[in-house]
Amino acid sequence: MAIAVGTTRQSLADNYKTLGAYVSVHTADPGSTGASEASGGSPAYARKQTTWTSATGGVVNGSQVTVDLPAGTYTHIGIWSAASGGTFIDKCAITSTTLGAQGQLLITPTFTQS
Questions:
Q1: pLDDT tens-place string over residues 56-84
Q2: Is 16 helix (H, G, I), strand (E, B) or coil?
Q3: CB environment 30-43: b (16+ within 10 A), e (fewer)
Q4: Maximal CA-CA distance, the chain
């Protein structure tokens, strides 16, 4: 039986985008629970919702989100099922970013199923 690998990869990627669309920012590796999520600031930190779109070859792309953050160092982003609470879905290390004062981080999430 032949398996259409490209079709399977895209189906898995499309399923990923149904799990969650809320982007978080973290001050350390969030592990499997979403620990070390940012907080505080003015305007206050909050998760932002991305809009997932399908690409091809096992890829889904999210729309860019702008996250308000207080001064601090940020090392990871996460994907959640809800704007607050919810289920932690996934994480990704980013280039460590240090803000000396209140600022913003622009994030464009992408998921690739290999």
A1: 899 999 999 999 999 999 999 999 999 99
A2: helix
A3: beeebebbbeebee
A4: 58
Alpha carbon separation from 55 to 11, 21, 102 (Å, rounded): 11, 16, 34
Q: List the one residue out of 90, 71, 95, 78 whose CA is nearest residue 36.
A: 78
Closest CA relative to residue 105, chosen from 49, 45, 21: 45
User: Which amino acid appears at position 33 of this protein?
Assistant: T
* The predicted structure's pLDDT at residue 55: 84
> Are the C-beta atoms of residues 94 and 30 closer than 8 Å to each other?
no
pLDDT in tens, 26-53: 999 999 999 999 999 999 999 999 999 9
Please say whether the beta carbons of 104 and 66 come within 8 A: yes
Helix/strand/coil (H/E/C) assignment for every residue in the chain: CCCCHHHHHHHHHHHHCCCCCEEEEECCCCCCCCCCECCCCCCCCCCEECCEEECCCCEEEECCEEEEECCEEEEEEEEECCCCCCCEEEEEEEEEEEECCCEEEEECCEEECC
